[in-house]
Amino acid sequence: MKGLKRGSCAIVGVAESDLGKVAEGLSPLDLMAQAVVRALDDCGLKTSDVDALFSAATQSRMPTLALTEYLGIRPNYGDSTYLGGSSFMTHLAHAQAAIEAGLCEVAVIAYGSTLRTAGRTGAVVRDFNPYESPYKPFLPSSAYALAASRHMHLYGTRREHLAEVAVAARLWALLNPAAWEKEPLTAEQVLGSRMVSYPLSVRDCCLVTDGGGAVVVTSAARARHLRKPPVYVLGCGESQAHQTISNMPDLTVTAARESGAAAYAMAGLKPADVDVREIYDAFTITTLLFLEDLGFCGKGEGGFFVADGKLRPGGTLPTNTNGGGLSYGHPGMYGLFLLIEAARQIRGECGERQVANCEVALAHGNGGVLASQSTVILGGTATV
Q: pLDDT tens per residue, the chain (384 residues)?
């Protein structure tokens, strides 16, 4: 992102709240605060050290103000930029800009959701769209199904290719004690599961879970004196192309092409330099689209590219190593959890699912219906 300095800031603390289906009575704000306290403990800081809050939420109109009140702090800076699931990568770039400008020293990015326990009563009310709403699409699934159908028509992508994305995610989830899904999954089970919106079956769609997370960010200078090894922000990029799927210029090309290019340029790196990819997988088709648009394979090649199992544990392109939104968890907006997993991989904290010699990780967020894209490249100490 133009104006930001490579490696000037670092992620120093990460944590999840309780996940999956949480205790009755817990609110999204409870989960946010729980994650914040855990993330601060992860890096050895206290709530009194925090002078900036960043958040976006589906169940709170003013999440940063609510969290300020809940935690009893008085931040100098706050940001509630809302771009759907990509919001948190954008928050990280904004936090870096604020720290570089001297507006704050310790920023916390937080999210929490109880969509699973709240059920339909906690669902987000969608805007009326005169070009789509009269046709009663099953959103967001039908929107992503359009993209998948178009990709299949143009490039010969098959449902088996989409199923491989789901199977790879499940194999990673089986290595993650915090993942929601605990049972093995085969391609045949994906293909034979209940159809949601053709060509996407229920196993091509993300989970609906509760959960929260938090990330603590500070200057590189301060980061070197905290509890855990710094995870440096090497590159950031964002791009927004549309809001509604009927206005997407090309159903098979996302704004990740621009956000990724900006992040690579800032980082001075290229796709081949990335050791781990944490890519927003609300649906199996998004993984294919983003692998293409972020430069890991050519446009239209995604399905055949993943068919040999390279995304799986032990594969040549480890991707979504916590199990992703398809098998780890998806509490409404997922982007913050991608940053958490990327940071943990660089710090070497992932146990059975740890990717060896991980120095560079890419975390890519998607908001709306392939609408808002935000890419972050993180690196370990050897990269700065």
A: 778 999 999 999 999 999 999 999 999 999 999 999 999 999 999 999 999 999 999 999 899 999 999 999 999 999 999 999 999 999 999 999 999 999 999 999 999 999 999 875 555 667 788 888 898 889 999 999 999 999 999 999 999 999 999 999 999 999 999 999 999 999 999 999 999 999 999 999 999 999 999 999 999 999 999 999 999 999 999 999 999 999 999 999 999 999 999 999 999 999 999 999 999 999 999 999 999 999 999 999 999 999 999 999 999 999 999 999 999 999 999 999 999 999 999 999 999 999 999 999 999 999 999 999 999 999 999 999
- Separation of alpha carbons 107 and 66, rounded Å: 16
Tokens of 260: 């990724």
DSSP for 277-338, please give it.
EEE--SBHHHHHHHHHHTTSS-TT-HHHHHTTSTTSTTSSS-B-TT-HHHHT---S--HHHH
CA distance linking residue 105 with residue 107, whole number of Å = 7
Residues 6+ apart with CB under 8 A from 119: none
Q: Could you tell me if 166 and 192 are in contact, meaning their C-beta atoms sit under 8 angstroms apart?
A: no
User: Is-above-0.85 flag for pTM?
Assistant: yes
Pick from 16, 22, 285, 331: which is nearest to 157 by CA? 285
Residue among 372, 87, 144 at smallest CA distance from 258: 372
Tokens 């009663």 belong to which residue?
136
Q: Is the peptide bond before 199 cis (omega within 30 degrees of 0)?
A: yes
Q: 152 and 199 in contact (C-beta within 8 Å)?
A: yes
- Which class in CATH covers the domain with range 1-125+132-384? alpha beta
The Cα-based distances of 87 to 242, 375, 382 in angstroms read 15, 11, 28
Cα(291)–Cα(324) distance, rounded to whole angstroms? 14
Q: Are 112 and 32 in contact (CB under 8 A)?
A: yes
Alpha-carbon distances, residue 7 vs 17, 272, 301 (angstroms): 28, 20, 33
Cα separation, 217 vs 81, in Å, equals: 17
Residue 256 DSSP SS3: helix
Cα–Cα distance, 219 to 213 (Å, whole number): 21
Q: What residues does each domain of the chain span? A: 1-125+132-384
